[in-house]
Amino acid sequence: MDSTEIGLWGVPLAMLGGAIRVSTPFIFVSLGEAITERSGRINLGLEGTLVFGAMTAYAVAVMTGSPWLGLLAAAAAGLCFGLFHGWICKFRGVNDIAIGIALMLFGSGLAFFFGKPFIQPSAPDLPAIPFGGWSDVPQVQAALNVNVLFLIGAALAVFLWWAFRNTRAGLILRVVGDSSDAARAMGLNPNTVRLIATGIGGALAGIGGAYLSLYYPGSWTEGISSGQGLMAVALVIFARWNPLGCFAAALLFGGAGALGPALQSVGVTQGYYLFYAAPYILTLVIMIATSSPSRSLAGAPGELSITK
Amino acid sequence: MLGARGYPTALEWIARRAEAFVIPLAALIVGMALFSLFIALVGKSPAQLYETMWRGGFGSWFSIQNSLSRAAPLLLAALCVALPARLGLVVIGGEGAIVLGGVAAAATGVATSGTPAFFVVLAMGVAGMAAGGIWIGAVGALRHYRAVNETISSLLMAYIAIALMNHLVEGPLRDPASLNKPSTEPLAQAYRIGNIAGMDVHWGLVVGVIACILSWLLIEKTRWGFAARIAGGNVRAAQVQGLAVGPLIVGFTALAGGFAGLAGMLEVAAVQGSANASLAAGYGYTGILVAFLARHNPLAIIPVAFLLGGIDASGGLIQRRMDLPDATVLVLQGMLFVVILFSETFYGRFKAFNPDLWQRPDLLKGIA
């Protein structure tokens, strides 16, 4: 059976399904980056963390037979990368953006180095819940086969949105992000807060990577992430550092990413590579539309280097 | 002659240069030492690794020529990072300009074939530079006129450029005769760029070295370079001085992208003979490392590009001789990059390099 049976309706359906499938890594990386950026620091290295997390998760899942252990290992690896970024950035004269680029290259390099033996074997997948069971149309069933990580990501977005406003930790994070001086006056150490925030951000990016290799596309290859980590960083700016906005934007990006394959499945193959570029173009257009030379962005943490 | 601070200016000059030389060198050595540790941890011999690396990169005339060939695109790719850096911009999407420069050059080469070789090569060079220049110039324009972060936009545009190349090479520009590896129509042999007399290295190396020297002259000896350094230090101050910061930023980023586009043109005209997916070989990313290691000084880029070209060139031999993955070189580059950036924190901290501290050791207490 192919999707031509339901005609062009297959395109929006495939895009919905694609949005749910493709968005999960965006959700985790962007929520992690939202925490990091709210603390006043930017971590561009999450792209490398994502790739390394994907490799770690896959390798551990192959060796132990448990995808959940793989997920845990990826989160731990991401935590290490994040803590390293957070530690090194506290030194005078060290640029957080440049360190991010370096860690992006380093993380991918390490992942390719250790990942070579794991390109062949297959790992157990993370489980999914078939919400489409009520329908007999296979496309609907496929579109609504939702992975548990997507649901966890959605819950996490709501939790973070609440926690940023209503908890003591959220308040500390926001104060440090808005003004190092104000934080010091309150007796807080900005470096420590940023270290923790970058660590958590890295761990979440590692989980995003685990989803890539353990569910969709569901295998480890060197090309597994094509800039998702980086797009997630741009997405946080678009979402105005709001976790709920991150979740919505991630769905939008997932849908854009599914455009090419969806059109191909109904027989539109012209310009396949251009549709493949849709998420990058979307990201760029959004960045252009939301940036302004005359004012800083609404909701931007005051200490963030890229919006100052 | 005594300077404003009461010690010889020549001595101060030497101290500054020594600092700019010793700290990166020390960082390089520390990075290599850390990498030895890594290699030992995965159960291989670091000594054998460095010996193989030396043999593959610099040990013989053959390997030196190989390293020089790889240095050629790195010189231009590094300029794509170093020139905007003078304005305080972190542009990391040179790969996109390389790829599009290569495609534009290949299309131009095919379109102008039949005319004299000199004209074809010139047209290809201009097309390559224009494509790369527009691409990175747009990054600069977005930065200045729309405040779009240049680091993220340039990298996004690199992904878009690669998709655009794939589209063109698989579709409108595809040579039907290229089966497994979609390519544009091959350039006639007469239009290819040959090797430097007596060497197995193409003329692109000379082009790259000249580009570095011209860039150094531009930055150090012209008023545009001076204005760029002021704008890089403080945009507001530059605007108060009446400098046209916008055109300056667009001009510098466009020139930077033009150099990267030229690297793509050289890959097409001297190495590949047509545009295809091999254009995205990662030179743009290694170029970032070269530029940072050279501290964005165009003259320092020349030796650093040779060094990293050698490390790149030795990758194959390391893979075969030591049974290590081809990503070994990537790990080394990543480690070096992190250590180099970390070393930024040591500038101005050592008494030996700072004339102020020669006379005022008490100043050290505040910063060390």
Automatic annotation (TrEMBL), chain A:
CDD domains: TM_PBP1_transp_TpRbsC_like
InterPro entries: ABC_transp_permease (IPR001851)
Domain of life the protein comes from: Bacteria
Membrane spanning residue stretches: 6-32, 44-62, 68-88, 97-119, 139-164, 193-214, 246-266, 272-290
Record's bilayer topology term: Multi-pass membrane protein
Pfam families found in the cross-reference section: BPD_transp_2
Keyword entries, A-Z: Cell membrane, Membrane, Transmembrane, Transmembrane helix
Location in or out of the cell: Cell membrane
Protein's name according to its UniProt entry: ABC transporter permease
Species of the source: Mesorhizobium onobrychidis
